């Protein structure tokens, strides 16, 4: 019956002198794309791990997982076929340079019109109204951001100092994760892989709080094969926190451009002063952004066992691999993906 209708329509158009062009639909057209940003600012190992981990959670018959370049992002053709746009760890100044206003606004408008965004670590900083990274320190990066999915300031690194080149700054940090969609609703205690992420301070809290900084103990090897600079970094370890009672009360208003609103609080830094937010979801127009300061895509088997700075972290993370898996699945579920049942 369908073929008969097509045949009649074809002959009718031909009689009217209309040129008829047939398009061959590619096999991937029926799939919803999950796009992982790959370009300046994105660390290759983080891109690869996101690709690997997301592939474990979703059906290849439903989602086409692939990387996207800054150039492709700027062109914008991806938006109509994309279920989720992902930016992982690295450095957000690289994203700004590579994407520029054009690419960043493409992402922003995609989310505002119903799209989904997952930002982890640097990808989460990039998605906030403003960031303050190592404020007053040698690596200071402070400023407003264009996406503005989170209505506040991302302050970090929560555990410092940060090292861009080696894993001396990595931690296994205590977390408390709660998913309102879990039935029954429950909270999970775990340790998650952390390296440079920030804490999400809603604007009203940021306006009235002070940021604390306390020395942090270390369990890293300080043997002779650790050079003096790295040894000093380890000795200078510190942790930021929040004191809501001793702020300077200097009110900073949100930027004039529209920001998102917090929808769900998923995770706290459970042993950081003030227990600040570590993972959240934000309603952005008709879309949603899921932001995590912690690398919940990283489980202990994914870390390099030959790296002396990661060895103690692997030992600490290993007992929580099951919890990590469940929590990362939660992030993907909140980001709108259909997750395979375990």
UniProtKB/TrEMBL annotation:
InterPro entries: Biotin-prot_ligase_N (IPR019197), Class_I_gatase-like (IPR029062), UCP016642 (IPR015834). Signal peptide: none annotated. CDD domains: GATase1_ScBLP_like (cd03144). It comes from the Eukaryota. Residues 33-212, 266-339 form the Biotin-protein ligase N-terminal domain. Coiled coil: none annotated. The keyword Ligase applies. GO terms for cellular component: cytoplasm. Keywords: Ligase. It holds the Pfam family BPL_N. GO terms for molecular function: biotin--[biotin carboxyl-carrier protein] ligase activity. The keyword Ligase applies. PANTHER family: BIOTIN PROTEIN LIGASE, BIOTIN--PROTEIN LIGASE. This is Biotin--protein ligase. It comes from Mizuhopecten yessoensis.
